[in-house]
Amino acid sequence: MTWDKNPSHKTRVGILYFSGAGNTECIATLIRNTLARREDYEAVFFERIRRALNIRALPEFDLLGIGFPIYFRKTPAIVFDTIGQLQERGRKVFTFCTKGMYSGNVAREVLSRCVASGVVPAVHFEAFMPGTDALILFARKGSWTEKLIKKMHSRHLDRKIDRFVQDVFNTEKISIPRSKWYTPLENRIVKPMEHLITRDYQVFKQGYHVLPDRCTRCLLCVRSCPEENIRLEDGKILFGNHCDLCLRCIHHCPTEAIQIGAKTLKTVRYRPAIPDFLDIPARDRNAGKGKGSPG
Element (H or E) spanning 93, and its range? Predict the structure, then answer.
């Protein structure tokens, strides 16, 4: 990719985001909508990160946003791979992520990877969002658990994103944060306990299967898998060994044909909509349901 001078005097902004069920896509869309209100902004691309995405074929940009969810206090490998393809020396990057709990050293790791790729990290933003893994594993439809988990998100997101966008344009460079003080405690106590409690997470990859009587062969799962890990073969949906546990296929399957063992037969499928996270009255939120929903 070659870079040219920008004659319009507007900041050309591109956004790349990785999203499973849709939480990060909601945040990315809110950021894009906020940017669109600025007179000094020009949108050049808005793309979901996937293996098939050709980074070098993207339009020229002056400022790049990279968004992703945090999985067990880690950044999805596909996001690191995407950052590793950047070769835009001196270009400014802002990062944002969604999380169900605390984020560990994700900010340090991602910003360090940006520096190693030659781009300049400007601002980092984190938003609490409903845990898509908790919903699919533990929340039965209509249960108090479902209602509780869906309420677990950052408040005043629209205002926070407004401030974040201001910082994006006003900040030239930020320092790489230090490791969190609780890292030794996490490594020695939290992670071993988590492994004991969440062994089911480790068998996700082997647990995916399709209920033949529900599957309509719409191939939405095949088209939307960011790792190209799902295929149709001899009339059957098959899963490979490169799943990154984004859970997009199971949450977005229109007939709930995709299951993980037997534990997800009666649990919640989650497709977030932007109005769910804005400071608007419930009546207006319900009236606007579906507007701005991730695809």
Answer: strand 92-99
